[in-house]
Design a protein that fits this description.
The complex is a heterodimer of chains A (about 260) and B (about 240).
Chain A: H1 4-18, E1 34-38, E2 46-52, E3 55-66, E4 77-83, H2 99-114, E5 124-126, E6 130-142, H3 147-161, E7 163-170, E8 173-182, E9 190-197, E10 200-203, H4 207-212, E11 215-221, E12 227-233, H5 240-261
Parallel strand pairs in A: 4-6
Antiparallel strand pairs in A: 1-2, 2-3, 3-6, 5-6, 7-8, 9-10, 9-11, 11-12
Helix pairs in contact in A: 2-3
Chain B: E1 27-31, E2 39-45, E3 48-58, E4 72-79, H1 94-107, E5 120-129, H2 134-148, E6 158-165, E7 168-171, H3 175-180, E8 183-190, E9 195-205, H4 207-244
Parallel strand pairs in B: 4-5
Antiparallel strand pairs in B: 1-2, 2-3, 3-5, 6-7, 6-8, 8-9
The chains are: A alpha+beta (about 260), B alpha+beta (about 240).
Chain lengths: ~260, ~240
Amino acid sequence: MASVVTRIKQKQIAQLIEKGKRLDGRSPNDYRELKIEQGIIERAEGSARVRLGNTEVVVGVKIENGTPFPDTPNEGVLTVNAELTPLASPAFEAGPPDADSIELARIVDRGIRESKMIDTEKLCIEQGKKVFVVFVDIYVINHDGNLIDASALAAVAALLNAKMSNYEIEDGEVKFKSGYTPLPIKQHPITVTCARIGDKLIVDPGIDEELVMDARLSMAIDDDGDIRAIQKGGAGYFTPEQVFEIAKLAKEKTKELRKKLDW
Amino acid sequence: MNDKPERLIDKKGLRLDGRKPDEMRQVKLEVGVVPNADGSAYIEQGKNRIVAGVYGPREVHPKHMALQDRTVLKCRYHMAPFSVQERKSPAPSRREVELSKVIRDSLEPAIFMEYYPRTMIDVFIEVLQADGGTRCASITAAALALADAGIPMRDLVVACAAGKADDTIVLDLMDEEDKLGKADVPVAIMPNLNAITLLQMDGKLTHEEFESAVNLAIEGCKKVYDVQKEALKAKYVGIKEEAEE
């Protein structure tokens, strides 16, 4: 819900963007400062903290044994969950996941799943019976806009950081040994979100921009520069030309980020 | 149902159900199918069978959700337990929660929300049988139900998916193409305003493939739009005939 301050800022934001400027001095295609730390939670098999300006997201990866889905008996399982903790924003409430947190988790999930980032067949211990289950839990610590890109980056960083225990099969029984190996990684998807305000497009919307935006469009791009997942959100629309412009922009932006992150 | 086809496109370039790549399934639309609702519509697209109903503008429930300057649009996309091969639990899944949200976001741009402050408009969608592309068919039916309820709209909203089966960009994916194909791009548009109100994608597409998929989906939407208009007209022609009898 738009706060009173935002209503006052709304006009200012729109006028600035009309001139190609933004409230915090960024140009339309700039990300805020990005910081990624990995391995911050020792008890998790993998973890990462992402700061995108004042937006902060922590992702923990837990890896456990479980049973595979009947339709994919030789593949490990990936589940992504997101918590919009009441700590992170006055707009969030404690309670079961709402539509916003489910959407966030599913956008991050699709980026990882559709890009085939993890080689899930290598997570199979015993076909049809035992596989590794990878839990990706997204924790929002501070919401200052663009949770999608911050969460997607944090999830990928945490998975790159994750390790699973070594095991051997003895008399049909799985025995875990000392030592760890990293997850089998094939791709490094990066998600770029653009917002439309008036007829202008901006990358990485901050919270005030999100509250006045007409609509947003997020695209997950893989190592080859191809598109793997898309989600439009918000109660507005895009013209086809704007959609194609965002696709180009997303490709450029992920190239830049890849170089910076060495992904 | 149990055997996976080796190829989705045969040597002649035809699809499993004999369609050409840019050919739609048959779409049947009917308006005013739920007498108790303020507006309703029924769609058949391939084996999809979906009913959409609209209640409102009406009192907001719970009251604290009311907005002082506009109406609240609520949307519930739900699949019947018997709509898919393996019985689906009637409790809303995470997929249904997400789809309810993106369908809502696809319909809102068309509605003059500010005309009905402190009220709520409910859109209920029940998928009776699913055959690939249920979100698109749901949007097409729900927009028609909103129009049938007499809610002032900038334009209708109409949806259709395109995607990639084997190496071909195809229109209006059916179930097998949705599950075994290489990409799925559902698109909703307001046809008279050159506006895309729903866009999702999963799979893998180059930028060129993505552009042709979106353009093909828009062409598909325009074909469905003609059926939508006819369905809306048919209702009033029916009323006129009754009145004249």
